[in-house]
């Protein structure tokens, strides 16, 4: 006999497995705590079956927010990867220390950051995300407070 385990607190489906035969009652099976013989419903990738023990039935719950949270964590990680470089280039631009190439690179970093921040506005989010191409990471051209040795 197959039993379907669910989380004790949330009721969320965990897995299916074979129940052990009851050694005291021939033909009967031991049903573990937090398990049922009722099979969970088929669900989409952004749903999960949850067992309502008081009603003895499965319900389907939308969990797409979990996927959105994961995508937004990637956005935050990618922003953090370019953040210090972007800040350094912004400071150098404000000090008038960037040449034309440096200013173009700063614009490339800025556009990348804006596109990352707009990922959640894409059609199909969070199931389908088109990631903006990351700019090549460069070294900071120089530190204006520490003249180059030469």
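Sequence proposed for the structure above (150 residues):
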């Amino acid at each position: 006999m197959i039993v379907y385990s669910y989380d004790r607190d949330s009721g969320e489906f965990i897995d299916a497995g074979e129940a052990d035969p009851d050694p005291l009652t021939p033909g009967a099976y031991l049903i573990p705590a937090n398990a049922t013989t009722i099979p969970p419903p088929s669900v989409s990738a952004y749903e999960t079956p949850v067992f309502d023990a008081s009603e003895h039935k499965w319900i389907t719950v939308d969990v797409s927010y979990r996927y959105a949270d994961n995508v937004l964590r990637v956005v935050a990680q990618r922003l953090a990867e370019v953040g210090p470089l972007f800040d350094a280039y912004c400071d150098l631009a404000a000090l008038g220390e960037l040449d034309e190439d440096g200013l173009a690179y700063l614009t490339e970093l800025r556009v990348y950051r804006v596109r990352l921040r707009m990922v959640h506005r894409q059609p199909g989010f969070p199931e389908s995300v088109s990631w903006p191409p990351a700019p090549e990471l460069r070294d900071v051209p120089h530190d204006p407070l520490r003249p180059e040795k030469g």
